[in-house]
Amino acid sequence: MKQFATYEEENIHYWTNRASGYSGVNQEELATSQKTVWRGLISRRIAARFPNTNPKRIRVLDVGTGPGFFAIILAELGYQVTAVDYTASMLEESKRNAGALAEKIDFLQMNAEELSFRAASFDVLVTRNVTWNLPNPEKAYAHWMRVLKPGGLLLNFDANWYRYLWDENDQAAHALDRKNLQDSDVRDETAGTDVDAMEAIARQTPLSRIHRPAWDLDVLRGMGMQANADTEIWKQVWTREERINNASTPMFLVEGCKVGAAI
Questions:
Q1: Which of 103, 130, 217, 218 is 20 to 30 Å apart from 145, CA to CA?
Q2: Is residue 262 part of a domain?
Q3: How many domains does the chain have?
Q4: Which residue, among 81, 47, 43, 40, has the nearest Cα to 62 in the 3D structure?
């Protein structure tokens, strides 16, 4: 395995090489009913926070957009969308996937832990499968809270990815997932990916060792944000394939509201 001088270099190298394959996953979501599922879930959450508000008035930031799935569906819904990612290759994929919608999305290369936007720039911040991969997730949350307007909404979808590297019970559950996958008729979502490289990265990320989302709630509440978690959100958004592949690491939603009056 190639040796890297820093975690940052290793992480960028992995996701740069993964961009094309990951883009294929997002393209499939955009072409199937998953697009409708996610559009409905996110738009309902935003509408509940900003009732009777025209989407064109709502500024949304997609952090770690990857190949652009969230940015694309949010732009389709009419929101003002800014999408950031740390790797140029991911942004290239996201622009390609957006097609004509790319002109309506502000794509920027930016570190999720060091957002350069002015304070109180966005009404909504969304992210999926990003926080676990960050070397300084508490710093990221501080920046996310900073760029949200008072009354702003945070929607962070994530899971306890790679927890099995640190816990015997989780390791056994992960092994059972692999067995059930082999006995099923669904595809292996890790096929074609460098699992060893991803595990090497996960061993360096603090959140892969921690049971979440309790940690997230403690951090956000400590920063003064009203926060709660939905640990069964996976039942609404995951396909049968995702459920079989990742049964022991169900997706959760951390939802936060920055104290203050909304638009």
A1: 103
A2: no
A3: 1
A4: 81
DSSP 61-98: EEET-TTTHHHHHHHHTT-EEEEEES-HHHHHHHHHHH
68: left (phi over 0), alpha (psi -120 to 50) or beta: left
CATH number for the domain including 67? 3.40.50.150
Selection from 38, 41, 46, 6 nearest residue 154 by Cα: 46
Residue 1 lies in a domain: no
Is pTM beyond 0.85? Reply is yes
- The tens digit of pLDDT for each residue in 78-100 reads 999 999 999 999 999 999 999 99
132 Cβ contact list (under 8 Å, min separation 6): 158, 159, 160, 161, 162, 202, 205, 207, 208, 212
Token match 């099995």: residue? 164
Q: What is the pLDDT of residues 96-122, one digit of tens each?
A: 999 999 999 999 999 999 999 999 999
Domain boundaries, position 231 = 7-257
